[in-house]
Amino acid sequence: MDNANTPYSPTNPRTVDFVVEPEWILPIEPAGLLLTGHALAVRDGRIEALLPTDQMRAQFSCRETFRLPGQLLMPGLVNLHCHSAMSLLRGYADDLPLMRWLQERIWPAEGALAGKEFVATGSKLAALEMLRGGTTCVNDMYFFPEETAKAMAGIGMRATLGMIVIDFPTAYAQSGDDYLAKGLQTRDDYADNALLSFCLAPHAPYTVSDPLLQRISELSAQLDVPIHIHMHETEQEIADEVVRTGMRPVDRLDRLGIIGPRTIAVHAVHLSDTEMALLARRGAHLAHCPTSNLKLGSGIANVPAWERHGITWGLGTDGAASNNRLDAWQELRHAALLAKGRSHDASALTAHRVLSAATLGGAKALGLDSKIGSLLPGKAADMIAVRLDEWIYQPCYDPVSHLVYVTGREQVSHVWVAGELLMANGVLSCANLTEVLAEAEFWRQKLLQL
Amino acid sequence: MDNANTPYSPTNPRTVDFVVEPEWILPIEPAGLLLTGHALAVRDGRIEALLPTDQMRAQFSCRETFRLPGQLLMPGLVNLHCHSAMSLLRGYADDLPLMRWLQERIWPAEGALAGKEFVATGSKLAALEMLRGGTTCVNDMYFFPEETAKAMAGIGMRATLGMIVIDFPTAYAQSGDDYLAKGLQTRDDYADNALLSFCLAPHAPYTVSDPLLQRISELSAQLDVPIHIHMHETEQEIADEVVRTGMRPVDRLDRLGIIGPRTIAVHAVHLSDTEMALLARRGAHLAHCPTSNLKLGSGIANVPAWERHGITWGLGTDGAASNNRLDAWQELRHAALLAKGRSHDASALTAHRVLSAATLGGAKALGLDSKIGSLLPGKAADMIAVRLDEWIYQPCYDPVSHLVYVTGREQVSHVWVAGELLMANGVLSCANLTEVLAEAEFWRQKLLQL
């Protein structure tokens, strides 16, 4: 970053807040384009212009210039499925079969500790981990979403909060009505916050009853908010639902009006061709969580088939208890690699395609693609700069390929959300890290005492 | 590192070169053990003692102490399959079907440029990348192994060099006899180097004739050196071999005496149960390259079945052209995750097991397990320290689990090979990095001009 001697002094200039001059710009839209010799201008939190650098210098004056040689500017990454507060359970229970993991470790821990304060700390820790790695927007689902909303608003990260609904009482709420009322109240409380939006978040087909799902489907249409739901994560869950209801989960959800253009169905590891065709026809979106699906032994989603069906999808980390990193770069790489390994086709899911899914795909799923997901003028300046010049990444022939197959999250140097600089040169400036870590240590000690 | 005020002044002490006092020690042998409050002493390049810290301080005097709070000491990682020189082709050709990748990009580039100087530069670059990430020993296969030997010897990395044999002429050699003669000469030239050993490296069943394979089998027994060979990487390769010879590759190799206790068969993505039983019976070893197998669309090896058969295996990165990182931590994580995802069992291949494969497993496959692969007194001091105290890795409940599911290679802080400190606090001291990068840039420019 160099703002000592800005050369931006044209006659009759248009004024902007700052200009970024990186080595490369990957705007994501138009698809496949990689620019060099370009600069991007930001005013009032939005992208004002994306122009060849000499034209930018001739037309604009700015208060600050970020000269970033060896770096690539791109949209911030969208984490389409996370349970942020579970960052406090990172590595708390690994290498266990799914049901023992849940029943013996995760649920008892959550039952004992997952109140407001736990969610507040876990959400902050997760937000900082995600921002450090270039994730600028998260779609979250957890109890006490008001605490996650507060944490995200305080830090300045963009988030969609799940108004969670689950058909049994917890420390957060007592009944379906109670869950919905609390979620909707939180939505009202943050109606004025431009960085926060809300989803209806029925946990999963097997934890939410027909009447509740029907009500959620109606609310989604009335309020025009997305529905965020786990679906077809494991074969067992599907088989159980067939025994219980006579239907596969996706068919039951469709009958109840849950499957539509506002739907974000998470995991979708096991889908028939007919089911994919249905999802495509309904305009539903999928959240692919490749690492979590491997780690919990769920399997490998057939993403090349999703692509053939024209389904829009994004990438999610899931919670840190089943990953164990909230690292969008790991998900990018896993998505590209697993698509190739599963289909036995090394050309499946190219670097450009997976980067588009991780940005614009996630934005579309959240209904936020008019605001974020690409570097089109008019969109919010949610963007990141990535160093491609460190020695261990050399040689570099194709920066886009390097982003997917080589880059680590530690290479992210700058992060802006709505034009606010939250990290520069790898150093976060948006929270008191020491305080958050002290809180996290408090909860770690609590968990060790269980 | 703190050696200003060593407390090691017992009466009648035994003298050692240095002592490491980390937070944790993961010795790999005995299996599953994680020590705290222990220290490790090194003398003349070997591990002299591993004791509770107070006993160490009472019994030994030393010239240097490495106090490493928040860090874990473990054996250096063994990369059981690499083409080091191909680091210069990192990201040169991605997202292409295997045959186009080879025929249109990799082979023409190698044909035009892969001479002695190319191999020298590529090997140095690869060695530095591997050491930075905690890999202390590599099993290599490429043309001009004398250049890779020279690079590794100069840097001080432990390596097993493949005496490559392939049934067509290249810039390196003209005939099977020529390949063998050159490889054996290189082996003789480095006979006195304690860090270097040699393998016979017939490239693959489909590129080496029966008589040559038979000769290699005999040489392996006479000289007591391992055989390093690609095997059953793709379904196509197996089908082609059946058409050509009437046999599956592993059966043909077995008939020719190649499959035995000195064998390192690489990839083994597609193996029947009978074939695994044969490999186990013969005492052959496998090199698992999970990332490369995904990226080239080869598939996912059935490692949990290898384990059931009791086959010894280690982890390999393959070359940087098909990975694109020479990063042992990525392979560790992918091995653990893919085993779970493929078998639909979240308890498959635990963190302890995969760490053992990546260290002791690789050492056994190379016939070097009396020297390296665990922190037993008497073995060479090939070891690494890993930071587990950075904020982005918090909280940490189980350091072993964190190594596999959370750690990035940038967390490796110290690297020793045979007691020589090659990296401290993440800074390599074993080569002129600027010079190596300038050479790498020279070759990048050459490749861009092709």
How would you characterize this protein structure?
2 copies of one chain form a homodimer. Chain A is α/β, with parallel strands linked by helices and 450 residues long. Chain A has 2 domains: 14-75 and 383-417, Roll (Urease, subunit C, domain 1), CATH 2.30.40; 77-365, Metal-dependent hydrolases (TIM Barrel). Chain A contains 15 helices and 17 strands. Chain A has helices at residues 53-59, 98-113, 116-132, 145-155, 176-189, 210-223, 235-245, 249-255, 273-282, 290-295, 303-309, 328-343, 351-365, 399-405, 433-448, and strands at 14-25, 35-36, 38-43, 46-52, 60-75, 77-82, 135-140, 158-165, 196-202, 227-231, 263-267, 285-288, 312-315, 383-387, 412-417, 420-424, 427-428. In chain A, strands 1, 2, 3, 4, 5, 14, 15, 16 and 17 form a 9-stranded mixed β-sheet that branches. In chain A, strand 15 (412-417) and strand 16 form a beta hairpin. The model of chain A is unreliable at 1-5 (pLDDT under 50). Chains A and B meet through helix 3, helix 10, helix 12, helix 14 and helix 15 of A and helix 3, helix 10, helix 12, helix 14 and helix 15 of B.
